[in-house]
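Check out a protein:
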Amino acid sequence: MYTFSNRLKIASFILMAVGALGIGIGFISAPSTVEEAKAIVASHSDGHGDAHGAAEASHHTTDAHGDTHGVAEAHGEGHHDAAHDEHQLHQLQNKPWSALYVAAFFFFMIALGVLAFYAIQRAAQAGWSPLLFRVMEGITAYIVPGGVIVFVILVLSAMHFNHLFVWMDADVVAHDALLQGKKGYLNPTFFLIRAAIFLAGWIFYREYSRKLSIAQDNSDDNSNFKKNFRAAAGFLVFYLVSESMMSWDWIMSVDPHWFSTLFGWYVFASMFVSGITVIAMVTIYLKSKGHLEDVNNSHIHDLAKFMFGISIFWTYLWFAQFMLIWYADIPEEVTYYVTRINDYRLPFFGMIVMNFLFPLLILMNSDFKRMNWFVIMAGTVILSGHYLDIFNMIMPATVGDKWFIGIPEISSVLFFAGLFIFWVFRALTKQPLQPTRNPFIGESKHFHY
């Protein structure tokens, strides 16, 4: 039986405490007035915007002749400036919410990606992976707290505690013909009902499959194994539909004027490779502590192959989505990438390097896939890159160009990393780390590649 070490437990508590403190500071320091918002923007600007504004003010001062046209023009610009300042205030108020949401979703999607991989192994009756099933079941335990937290954020959005989803604002919808056309689908009540159904389905399968997995170890036949096979096959159908809809609802709808038919697959690839990466990292950690003695370099090699292969798959989907939209050059579609390239250049292009170029160069060599420290290094970069991927999906629509990596972003990652570590490793203590009655356990023990 695995024992949750005090050192790791204390580390997870420290991460949660520091993270919670920083999250609180982020919310407290969010501006409440236009003047506070201006001060924050000025402190993070490079000076060009202020100089440009001063030049414009000077131009209007010297160019005004006191006629009614000049007064009207000044009044119109003053109204525009006031609206801009109000919009800027809302963006900065969104910043701690957006940072919290990005981190909450990122760690939740890791567990959801592992659940998909686990169900695929069950449905395929894979012979190499049963030794890793307890690791996967431990990671998927995070679906419960992670899913509840994400759902609470969505409920708070529907209650107008934040402005993450602009289509939840009735005043915005009333003046937007496109959003009025989507009201039948994008409305708070139906949105939350869908979210509850998705979470209920994912959590039910995880708990049911885990129950059958444990029962199989205490059984004298394979009936529970067969039930688990049928449950996995049925779940994968539900998962493909629910994951696509979830990606439209929870991520794509923050930018409701834009859509992509590839988006569901794109988000799936991101969560899938992140989940497999965490399986590899947790497995390597447990082996370093003397557990999972039957897991060998071939198992790590196979996980690293999946990390490499799904990274390439993610890149294919990213490029297919980008290339088609950029080539078509339809204003309603291309704006999505124009915003990210202009205002998020570093995280946008950095994400591509971390999610494609780095795994390509590091994990292409077969020998490197068998070196634990290489897999850990590659996994750390891949996870950081896919955090940036979610960051790039959410932030431009919620905070615009007012982004910077600060206390809310770092603290949110620390808090959810601590919660993830605590919940996963506590779940690993509940049962022996190695199944005993799985029909393919012998094949898994002698797996060599």
Summary: The two ends are 28 Å apart (CA to CA). The first helix runs from residue 6 to 28. Confidence is low (pLDDT under 50) at residues 47-75. The chain is about 75% helix and 0% strand.
